[in-house]
Amino acid sequence: MCLAVPVKIVSIDGDEAETEIAGVRRRVSIALTPEAKIGDYVLLHTGYAIGVIAEAEAEETLKLLEEIANLSEVH
Amino acid sequence: MKFIDEYQDSKLAKGLVCRIAKHSTQGIRLMEFCGGHTHAILRYGIRQLVPETVEMRSGPGCPVCVTATADLDKAIALAHLPHVIITTFGDMMRVPGSYSSLQQAKAEGRDVRIVYSTIDALEIAENNPEKSVIFIGIGFETTAPTIAASVLKAQRERITNFYVLSLNKLTPPVMKALLDSGEIKLDGIVCPGHVSVIIGSHPYEFIPENYGVACVISGFEPLDILLCVDKLVEQIERGEPKVEIAYRRGVHPEGNGKARQLMEDVFEIGEANWRGVGIVPQSGLRVRGKYEQFDADKAFSVSLKPPREPKGCRCGDVIRGAATPRECGLFGEVCTPESPVGPCMVSGEGACAAYYQYGTPEDS
Q1: CA–CA separation, B309 vs A70, rounded Å?
Q2: Are residues B159 and B273 in the same domain?
Q3: Which residues of A touch B248 (CB under 8 A)?
Q4: Is B91 part of the contact surface with chain A (CB cutoff 8 Å)?
Q5: Has residue A72 got a pLDDT over 90?
Q6: Is residue B351 domain-resident?
Q7: Does A21 touch chain B (CB under 8 A)?
Q8: Domain region containing B126
Q9: Is A71 near chain B, with CB under 8 Å?
Q10: What is the CA radius of gyration of chain A?
Q11: CA distance A43 to chain B (A)
């Protein structure tokens, strides 16, 4: 129910957008995320984009995880 | 797939597992609120990856599971009204009500259709103007804005044969109810990621403040959950419970204001009946009076027999975290995904279904 998957916006038409994930295209509503732009990744839940993924935050988290992994190898 | 594969890397997971083991000294009990987390935890063997000091319990975060039998009976009764099409998310179909199920109603010739989205339900309404199309609105804050958006679209496009039976529920009030009951002691909560995309992190702040319980919002990939457990362990070991976000690519502290605005426009807050928990004040969403033409509760009346709970089923205890699925005498013998007795074995987010599908005998 609360499942949401990241999909990439390829085009926008009013409050609808064409999105793509792993080669599959789907039309979704962006009525809940009017700030979404072409190229953004959004979290898709039951046909609606419910949030725009913050790419900079995603990179920060991965950097942190890599630091933790490197530290655990040292010790 | 971007934003998925990176968070399943085993080398990075190993780093987190080592760190958690190093920091965890005292026995603690965490609850993952969300059924999506329960499934990921069982699927990726996270209970086996964390040290024995960390116990993980499933919570009430499965919308299908927490739907009260009486509400399910109402949905089934609506399906028996003439000229009605019921539209519902698939998980609801096989949940046994007191006397029937939506699937049984369909088998008896009633028009019950599975939809992926409220957008599909609206389309069915447009294509069937002579029928009343009722959407069974279940879900938490993640889903409620999408249902609100469908009501607003129906109004805008003058789709007058579309109705919502709102059984939507709110997350923080039921967390409060569980903590107030004191039935099980918790040290930390793995807070739901996609609910938090909408509500942000502030609505959980009363939990560390009033109950001293740590709260970390988690994503759904294995590294997200391990990072969340790591932060929870760290908070608890330090004795400094607070609300943190371990899913920063998805969750902003303020949440999604637009989605909340739509939800607040269409719905008002009232009490709700939760399976296993009972009536929880301020935990349900009802369609506001100004949108009553779309409110199935106002538009239709059905007479219901008193609800009956399935005999021997411990879904209620599992929902509250008071029992694990294997502690139910029906688990895996009488109650299986093929022949479920209670909703926790039906739903793709139900704890019993997760334990059945992925669990090992050690997942007690």
Answers
A1: 53
A2: yes
A3: 54, 57-58, 60-61
A4: yes
A5: no
A6: no
A7: yes
A8: 65-170+256-299
A9: yes
A10: 16
A11: 8
**At a CB cut-off of 8 Å and minimum separation 6, what does B295 contact?**
B163, B164, B166, B286, B287
Subunit contact B256:A32, Cβ cutoff 8 A: yes
Inter-chain touch B195–A21, beta carbons under 8 Å: no
Residue-wise pLDDT tens digits, A15-39:
999 999 989 999 999 999 999 999 9
Could you give the number of structural domains in chain B? Answer: 2
Residues B120, B157 within the same domain: yes
Contacts of B2 in chain A (CB under 8 A): 6, 8, 41
With beta carbons less than 8 A apart as the criterion, state whether B160 and B127 touch: no
pTM value surpassing 0.90: yes
Query: Nearest 5°: phi and psi at A11?
Result: -155, 160
pLDDT classification of A1: cutoffs 50, 70, 90: low
Q: If DSSP codes are grouped into helix, strand and coil, which group holds residue A4?
A: coil
- The structural domains of chain A, ordered by start, are 5-74 (2.30.30.140)
Shared-domain flag, residues B105 and B210: no
B225 touches chain A (CB under 8 A): no
Same structural domain for residues B140 and B89? Answer: yes
B210 secondary structure, DSSP code = I
B2 and A CB contact within 8 Å: yes
Measured CA to CA, the distance from residue B191 to residue B101 in angstroms comes to: 31
SS3 B53: coil
Q: Edge to edge, what strands does the sheet with B111-114 contain? A: B111-114, B84-88, B132-137, B162-166
Residue B233: name the closest of B59, B30, B31, B15 by CA: B30
3-state secondary structure of B120: helix
State whether A50 and B145 contact (CB < 8 Å).
yes
Mean per-residue pLDDT, B308-332: 95
Mean pLDDT over the full length of chain B: 96
The interface residues of chain B toward chain A in range 130-149, judged by CB-CB distance below 8 A, are 138-140, 142-143, 145-146, 149
Q: Is B347 on the interface with A (CB under 8 A)?
A: yes
- Within chain B, strands assigned E span 28-34, 54-61, 84-88, 111-114, 132-137, 162-166, 188-191, 214-217, 243-245, 267-274, 278-287
Q: In this structure, are B144 and B278 located in the same domain?
A: yes
- In this complex, is the C-beta atom of B15 within 8 Å of any C-beta atom belonging to chain A? yes
Q: Across residues B31-56, what is the average pLDDT?
A: 96
pLDDT value, residue B360: 80
pLDDT score of B359:
84
Contact A50, B145 (CB under 8 A): yes
Residue B218 and residue B10: Cα distance in Å, rounded?
18
